[in-house]
Amino acid sequence: MNAKPRGRQFFQNPGPTNIPDRILRAMDRATLDFLSDEFMAIHRFCHAGVKRVLKTQQHLFMYASSGHGAWEASLVNLFQPGDTVLMLESGYFSESWEQMATNLGLKIERIAADWRMGVRVADVARRLEADKTHQIKAVLTVHNETATGLATPIAEIRRAIDGTKHPALLLVDTISSLGCYDFKMDAWGVDVCVGGSQKGLMLPTGMSFTGVSEKAFTLSKKPGLPRHYWNWEMMTRREPQSFVGTTPVHLFFALEESIKLIEEEGLDAIFARHRRLADATRAAVLHWGGASMGGASCTTKGVTGKVGTLELFCADPSRLSDSVTAVIVPDGHDANAMRTVALNRYNLSLGGGLGPLMGRVFRIGHMGDLNEPMLLGSLATVELAFKTSNIPYREGGVDAAIKSLAA
Ligand code: PLP
User: Which one of 213, 240, 264 terminates a domain?
Assistant: First the structure.
């Protein structure tokens, strides 16, 4: 049997992410009655804290589930069977949310996009402008497409909706951006945002939530799709508004510590740290690939066109994600074989390509509890794994990352 590599694993997945020791320790305690005064004080602190991270003073509903649960809650509380929603294509996760909406009985219209570029805001405005009878009930978009490392400009999408005076709601998935780079639910006019515990909040998987605007909450009172566990109306009868069943108390012990950690560092400092680490990662990737940006594009069918060197997947410099970087490997090379070497030989865990990007792409998560030495160690180990997997690269990517961090 192969021995597991020694030493601490360097964990560079784009979710779940590293859980800080302080959060692990906070969970190491006896359970509490979830209706006791002692626990309710923790629950109230967490409820208010998550709202501060979302930058909202409106409603928040929480669920014992992974992010899929909050996706489902956002759909079943707002729509009637057969309602039309507009999905802005970004990649694997917009596709998955779209699939869920289809399975729940909604009609989907998609604004198509090259996955390397993201959706054109003008296309969204044009489609809403043409919808004179307001058949489209909502625009759905993923703020940070975790599969590709591409960020969608939410404020611009809101301006496009408002510019057409269309009443569509704006639903935003913030699962892999929240706590990593800025998200302003109220200032950006987001009606529903979907969040999860296991990324920027640095928690175990298993808690998700939705921020809900007054407008969306009022609309949710109309009869629509069947709902029970996700039912916001039922939750409002509990204090604080959340959970139809048992509250996951240990996740709250963890969340309380996470909010303390976030507020001790400060959201702006956290965003600046994520930007620094993301810039350093991109500097390394651009160097490895000889700084070339290829002409290939990507759709649901995968990468189409020639890729001769390592490349950043996101090809629009204004949309680069600060929480994850996806890298395309040159034609004829297998990103998964390289990841396997990185994990089994060197104890470095990287994200893989999802859906049609399987084997073509690997992902470096740089979100949550992470600092310069952790990132530099991981980037150096990626270079080592390139060498031992015979993936062609230009040496010196780690130096480029150091220069970026020192600048
Ligand atoms: N949306 C995005 C952007 C994600 O990254 C993920 C998971 O990685 C999901 C939705 C689904 O969340 P979960 O896997 O927690 O159900």
Answer: 264
Closest ligand 1 atom number to CA of residue 145: 3
Residue nearest to ligand 1 atom 12, measured at CA? 67
Q: Which residues line ligand 1 (CB under 6 A)?
A: 15, 66-68, 93, 142, 146, 173, 175-176, 196
Instruction: Indicate whether 228 and 358 sit together in one domain.
Output: no
Would you state the structure tokens that stand for residue 71, as one six-digit string? 């996706």
Which residue of 63, 148, 176, 193 sits with most ligand 1 atoms within 8 Å of its CB, as the best mutation to test the pocket? 176
Going from the Cα of 195 to the center of ligand 1, the distance in angstroms, rounded, reads 9
Q: Are 159 and 234 in a shared domain?
A: yes
Question: pTM score, two decimals?
Answer: 0.97
Q: Which of 190, 156, 192, 174 is nearest to 15 (CA)?
A: 174
pLDDT in tens, 128-181: 999 999 999 999 999 999 999 999 999 999 999 999 999 999 999 999 999 999
Q: Which of 334, 314, 303 is nearest to 116 (CA)?
A: 314
In whole angstroms, give the CA distance from residue 154 to residue 156.
5
pLDDT value of residue 1: 52
Number of domains in the chain: 2
Distance between CA atoms of residues 97 and 67, nearest Å: 10
Which pLDDT score is estimated for 293? Answer: 62
Q: Which atom of ligand 1 is nearest to the CA of 142?
A: 3
Residue (of 374, 373, 394, 382) closest to 350 by Cα position: 382
DSSP lists the bridge partners of residue 61 as: 210
| Atom 11, ligand 1: residue with shortest CA distance | 67
Q: Which residues of 291-403 form beta strands (DSSP E)?
A: 297-299, 302-304, 311-312, 324-328, 348-352, 361-365
CA–CA distance, 270 with 12 (Å, rounded to integer): 17
- Is residue 306 domain-shared with residue 340, that is, in the same domain? yes
Give the domain-ending residue among 230, 264, 298. Answer: 264
Query: Helices 372-388 and 267-288 sit at what angle, rounded to 10 degrees?
Result: 20
